[in-house]
Amino acid sequence: MSGRNLLSAAIVLTFMIVPMIISLSADAIRAVPHAYKETGCAFGMTKFRVIFKIILPCSRSGIIAGVILGAGRGIGEAIAVSMVCGGLGILPSASLGFINFLAPALPLAAAIVNKSEAMGSYAVESALFACGAVLLVIGALLSICAKTIEKRLRKQAGYDD
Hints:
This protein is mainly alpha-helical. It has helices at residues 6-30, 34-42, 47-76, 79-84, 108-114, 122-157. It has a single domain, classed as MetI-like fold (Orthogonal Bundle). Helices cover 70% and strands 0% of the residues.
């Protein structure tokens, strides 16, 4: 085991994505009007009840947006993942279970980075463009999913008819 595996890539991505999600979530929580918090306290709610019944529901769309933006960044991240994931396209075996995370891997974005030197070959070029197309479709689906969630939350809050 060289340490270059899928688990290492997941840990690196976690350290890259979590600060972005926390920052966007904190901004969304800070954007809740102070009058809402004061109203909850005026009605005798405890701090935790104000947080869970007023602040979090009001900032829910910002928190979800942060998670979706973080996921999009993680999917498209190529350089850091290609350095720590091993760069071998090995198909996982279901019989190995968790051991698959300790095997080298080749995610789509890392494949484009690692195999770009062989772009002269038609087969490699086609495969890399297919990887790029799949990443584009995944990004578009994330955007559509975010828009759908936003519309559903706005309708639930009573902003849209």
